[in-house]
């Protein structure tokens, strides 16, 4: 088992990465389970595959799992589902000292984490991530949120889990499209700060996405270690260090908003396109060699992900996409910092970007490819 510590003083916790963790969830979660009843939040797809082993493990330890099942997909990160979830937790008489289990992908984790942050001003939660994306990224670091009509993750809180169990077996039931989308966030760590890991992704991406467990364990453990380092340095995204984890997201979130947060474009797919755009825009600004931007696109294409926004069939202009960006949480006194590249493995926060120039660049990209 790989164990990665997330060092945050009194809020420190471990990320455990191995096969078989869900079937033994009660043992790992034991320090956090004070009562017979244990609230578990999941979604309708995850429940089909993973409810039973978790329920069995809890029952064997004398617990009764109490289930709240969300609709699957991004639409669950809404005021409506948040209110339903909090009302359900209240009806279950969950107390501040209790822990909620979040069994699912980033949607379940983000919504459950936010509900835990606001329930009685904050109770505990454990992340049981079942997608590649959630294992390598969303279950770690304590960003929790819902979407609103104005944009992505605009209402939320920083609230750290007490433990993360990344069970590699869960990836065995995950659709290939979701594996590819999750791998976008893996490649992200290479592009933003680790050229050697980017090489590794180029060499091993295809086999990892196809389900090679050894490679998946390496992908998850290395990604989590990279994220844990950054989160320990800048937990609340105040110094600029954590903002680098947003590489590709300013573009990606605008594309997600433009496609209505629908299955047309998954979060990881938006991030993949966003990273290609960030690399190409960096090349346009003369910050990186055009060959490096092309290499980013090639690695993303090799993972089976789209690299051209022209294929999305959007009828909007670059200005419409830039308008979505005005809601980005990185907006600071009227300027929007962008995460751009000096080379593969060297991302930085550029505060000198003019949105009008980004709009013109996006107009070209909407037609290209
Ligand atoms: N908090 C963070 O730091 C952070 C980081 C990255 C992404 N996110 C958020 O995460 C969300 C995306 O997460 P995601 O990609 O995991 O999406 P998701 O939670 O919607 O899961 C993807 C799909 O896979 C299904 N699924 C999940 N696990 C399964 C399994 N083991 N077997 C079969 N089906 C399974 C789900 O039901 C869903 O249909 C976005 O909302 C994004 O904003 C948050
Ligand atoms: O943990 C972070 O910090 C990230 O930025 C990770 C991203 O992959 C993730 O999608 C995050 O939710 C985006 O953050 P946001 O602050 O732009 O909503
Ligand atoms: Zn992301």
UniProtKB/TrEMBL annotation:
<feature type="binding site">
    <location>
        <position position="267"/>
    </location>
    <ligand>
        <name>Zn(2+)</name>
    </ligand>
</feature>
<feature type="binding site">
    <location>
        <position position="152"/>
    </location>
    <ligand>
        <name>NAD(+)</name>
    </ligand>
</feature>
<dbReference type="Pfam" id="PF01761">
    <property type="entry name" value="DHQ_synthase"/>
</dbReference>
<keyword id="KW-0479">Metal-binding</keyword>
<dbReference type="InterPro" id="IPR016037">
    <property type="entry name" value="DHQ_synth_AroB"/>
</dbReference>
<dbReference type="GO" id="GO:0003856">
    <property type="term" value="F:3-dehydroquinate synthase activity"/>
</dbReference>
<dbReference type="InterPro" id="IPR030960">
    <property type="entry name" value="DHQS/DOIS_N"/>
</dbReference>
<keyword id="KW-0520">NAD</keyword>
<dbReference type="GO" id="GO:0005737">
    <property type="term" value="C:cytoplasm"/>
</dbReference>
<feature type="domain" description="3-dehydroquinate synthase N-terminal">
    <location>
        <begin position="69"/>
        <end position="180"/>
    </location>
</feature>
<dbReference type="GO" id="GO:0009423">
    <property type="term" value="P:chorismate biosynthetic process"/>
</dbReference>
<dbReference type="Pfam" id="PF24621">
    <property type="entry name" value="DHQS_C"/>
</dbReference>
<dbReference type="GO" id="GO:0008652">
    <property type="term" value="P:amino acid biosynthetic process"/>
</dbReference>
<protein>
    <recommendedName>
        <fullName>3-dehydroquinate synthase</fullName>
        <ecNumber>4.2.3.4</ecNumber>
    </recommendedName>
</protein>
<feature type="binding site">
    <location>
        <begin position="130"/>
        <end position="131"/>
    </location>
    <ligand>
        <name>NAD(+)</name>
    </ligand>
</feature>
<dbReference type="InterPro" id="IPR056179">
    <property type="entry name" value="DHQS_C"/>
</dbReference>
<keyword id="KW-0456">Lyase</keyword>
<dbReference type="GO" id="GO:0046872">
    <property type="term" value="F:metal ion binding"/>
</dbReference>
<keyword id="KW-0547">Nucleotide-binding</keyword>
<keyword id="KW-0057">Aromatic amino acid biosynthesis</keyword>
<keyword id="KW-0170">Cobalt</keyword>
<keyword id="KW-0862">Zinc</keyword>
<feature type="binding site">
    <location>
        <position position="143"/>
    </location>
    <ligand>
        <name>NAD(+)</name>
    </ligand>
</feature>
<dbReference type="InterPro" id="IPR030963">
    <property type="entry name" value="DHQ_synth_fam"/>
</dbReference>
<keyword id="KW-0963">Cytoplasm</keyword>
<feature type="binding site">
    <location>
        <position position="249"/>
    </location>
    <ligand>
        <name>Zn(2+)</name>
    </ligand>
</feature>
<dbReference type="InterPro" id="IPR050071">
    <property type="entry name" value="Dehydroquinate_synthase"/>
</dbReference>
<feature type="binding site">
    <location>
        <begin position="106"/>
        <end position="110"/>
    </location>
    <ligand>
        <name>NAD(+)</name>
    </ligand>
</feature>
<feature type="binding site">
    <location>
        <position position="185"/>
    </location>
    <ligand>
        <name>Zn(2+)</name>
    </ligand>
</feature>
<comment type="pathway">
    <text>Metabolic intermediate biosynthesis; chorismate biosynthesis; chorismate from D-erythrose 4-phosphate and phosphoenolpyruvate: step 2/7.</text>
</comment>
<feature type="domain" description="3-dehydroquinate synthase C-terminal">
    <location>
        <begin position="182"/>
        <end position="331"/>
    </location>
</feature>
<comment type="function">
    <text>Catalyzes the conversion of 3-deoxy-D-arabino-heptulosonate 7-phosphate (DAHP) to dehydroquinate (DHQ).</text>
</comment>
<dbReference type="GO" id="GO:0000166">
    <property type="term" value="F:nucleotide binding"/>
</dbReference>
<keyword id="KW-0028">Amino-acid biosynthesis</keyword>
<dbReference type="GO" id="GO:0009073">
    <property type="term" value="P:aromatic amino acid family biosynthetic process"/>
</dbReference>
<comment type="similarity">
    <text>Belongs to the sugar phosphate cyclases superfamily. Dehydroquinate synthase family.</text>
</comment>
